[in-house]
Amino acid sequence: MAMAKGQLFLVLISFSSLVYPSQSRLSYNYYSKSCPSFDKIIQETVTNKQITSPSTAAGTVRLFFHDCLVNGCDASILVSSTPFNSAERDADINLSLPGDAFDLVTRAKTALELSCPNTVSCADILAAATRDLVTMVGGPYYNVLLGRKDYRISKSSYVEGNLPRPTMPMSKIISMFAAKGFSVQEMVALSGAHTIGFSHCKEFKSNLYNDTHYNQRFAKALQNACADYPKNPTLSVFNDIMTPNKFDNVFFDNLGKGLGLLESDHGLYNDPMTNPFVKIYAKDENRFFKDFARAMEKLSVYGIKTGRRGEIRHRCDAIN
Ligand code: HEM
């Protein structure tokens, strides 16, 4: 039986909204009419902040990653705790997220509220700022869909089990990412973010004396660097000791030489599931950049809220 043209059209529309339910209202130029200065304000804020505080890029990439993996990229990581609610950012694994990254989002939000009040979500600010920072420190550019809403719930109790720890076996890290739809290859590519930034001594100190995967001279140097750690818990070391401030593929090359910092970084090289990708990325920076960009694009829409499932917060640190 032939279907009338109008009926077919309706069927197609409702089918397409079933295929991409959470992305249906996103677009690359979401703010082109409602906030034409969006890109410019993000870029200016990012540039000023990164120049005055060069650790902002790495801190923001990690902040974004920790936001996304716990219930989606919905800015729930930015919310402050209240006497009635212990928020995500106060879960122990998030306590080391740096103030500069939170400050960057606050600055961008303040500037955007002046230009286009009640329009831009904190989740979109964090996603776009992360991309601009990756590019600014030498990494690949990728497109970021916009139109996320901010979530009204942020609970520290949601965090455990959703973020990887360096002491986890690689099989556990792989299954944690797999449960969120990320392949082994995507997980390895994303982990290439450890080409920038640093880790506190407490994250790797206990391995320095017994882990045979370290280059011996590197292990000694790390023991020295962390010697005062009990007195000074802020002591930290670059994740990529060769080119710490440059987003490149050297992190992967380090791994084969015993110059990885975290136990999980060594795991990427030693596990037979992840090792082939580490080797490819160590040899081929273009391939790493391509896969990283694609995986970041995918991460940036993970679990997002659109429409009435979220809100535009007035302040990124407080639910309206
Ligand atoms: C695969 C499992 C992963 C584990 C076990 C892990 C663990 C860690 C740990 C323990 C630190 C040190 C934090 C500190 O001491 O302040 C760190 C830093 C960092 N991580 Fe990961 N991470 C993983 C994957 C990722 C992914 C997928 C990304 C981003 C897409 C990422 C981005 C970063 C960045 C940029 C830093 C440096 C932060 C800074 O300098 O402030 N990590 N990671």
Automatic annotation (TrEMBL):
User: Cellular component terms, GO, for this chain's entry?
Assistant: extracellular region
Name the source's superkingdom.
Eukaryota
Is rRNA processing a UniProt keyword of this protein?
A: no
The Plant heme peroxidase family profile domain is annotated at: 25-320
Q: Which GO terms describe its molecular function?
A: heme binding; lactoperoxidase activity; metal ion binding
Q: Where does Ca(2+) 1 bind?
A: 67, 70, 72, 74, 76, 88
Instruction: Cite the cofactor comment.
Output: Binds 1 heme b (iron(II)-protoporphyrin IX) group per subunit.
The signal peptide, as residue positions, is: 1-24
| Record-listed substrate binding positions | 164
Q: Which cysteines are joined by disulfide bonds?
A: 35-116, 68-73, 122-316, 201-226
Which CDD domains would you find in this protein's record?
A: secretory_peroxidase
Cofactor names: heme b; Ca(2+)
Q: What is its EC number?
A: 1.11.1.7
Q: Where is this site: Transition state stabilizer?
A: 62
Its top-level enzyme class, in one word, is: oxidoreductase
Name listed for the protein in its UniProt record = Peroxidase
Record organism: Salix viminalis (Common osier)
